[in-house]
Amino acid sequence: MTSSSALWQPFTLGRLQLAHRLALAPMTRSRANADGTPGEHAADYYGQRASLGLVITEGAQPSEDGQGYLNTPGIYTAEQIAGWKPVADAVHDNGGHLFIQLMHVGRMSHPDNTPHHRQPVAPSAISAEQDMFTATGPQKTPAPRELSTAEIHDVIGEFRHAAASAIAAGADGVEIHAANGYLLHQFLSPNANKRTDEYGGSVQNRARFVIEVAKAVAQEIGADRTGIRISPAFPLGGLDEGDTESVRAQYRYLVGELAELGFVYLHVHHLGDDELLRSLRDTWPTAVLVVRYGREREQIAADIDAGLADIAPLGRFALANPDVVERLRTGAALNEVDPATIFGGGTAGYTDYPALTEA
Q1: At what angle do helices 203-221 and 149-168 cross, to 10 degrees?
Q2: Catalytic-residue membership of 182
Q3: Catalytic one among 45, 46, 69, 182?
Q4: Consecutive 10-residue runs of the chain (359 residues): their mean pLDDT?
Q5: Cα separation, 51 vs 286, whole angstroms
Q6: Cβ(271)–Cβ(233) below 8 Å
Q7: How many whole angstroms separate alpha carbon 183 and alpha carbon 187?
Q8: Domains of the chain, start order
Q9: Which residues in 160-286 belong to E strands, given as ranges?
Q10: C-alpha span between 63 and 81 (Å, rounded)
Q11: Boundaries of each NADH:flavin oxidoreductase/NADH oxidase N-terminal domain copy (predicted)?
């Protein structure tokens, strides 16, 4: 079995009682329908993984502007709310709890991938210069349109509405995606945010949009139903947050402000600055989730054992193993991920990975 006994200790997460310290990390799978409703096999996929306890979904856009990739789900229309209900039911019926991740991609988009085919939006009119997969093949992300101050307030309203929609769909809460190169992360990054108004310039101003989104969501659905994800110094989407001290200053300020809201968890996609992670852990009053790229099986509990995290979300291990909790608990072998089926397609590489009882 996975060695750390801490991994198997129960945990209270806000309103939720978790049987252990594992969770499902959010992973884009690009299998939603054209109207942004979850695909026909989404309930099976998430229901299969409900033993992870805390199930954090793939990113769901809060608006048409929020979509970046092909076939990602939304959580802002009546049809999308109805489409998420079977997913929530499947997770609950199998003993899990569902948090829907709210993801606005900002400039990490292409007009060919969105319902309205409009220019992407961002803090500043600076292209990510990234390759984006579209129906006709890879294309460069175009220069986005800079959001006006009034439009920033509209986007905050979109997050508020999406959070309410997630609860209406039966979710237990939401995770605000302020990481991985997407819109909220773009506001934090000085090479993507060149604004001269109250949303750009200083550490405090660059954090303002994230904090205002967080306050709006907490006001709408309750802080004890809200988590937030950050990824300090992650260079995804062409972002460059500066030197180590600049990154530390930005995130110590941001997390200090967010800590006062009483969110149920902070989810850190961690690149390796353990000094920063320790200071964030010491600042944050509730649960901390930490995920790292490339962890091996025997490293899953390392951050919990070190006192840096309370919960360890799983990505590729959970993707390929619907019963990953049982496999880790018993020491059973793990299925390997098929990279060719991660994005798009049907059941292959999605709901057909065998459980131990089928192997």
Answers
A1: 30
A2: yes
A3: 182
A4: 77 96 97 97 98 98 97 98 98 98 98 94 97 92 97 98 98 98 98 98 98 98 98 97 98 98 98 96 98 92 96 97 96 96 96 87
A5: 22
A6: yes
A7: 7
A8: 5-341 (3.20.20.70)
A9: 173-178, 226-230, 265-270
A10: 13
A11: 7-334
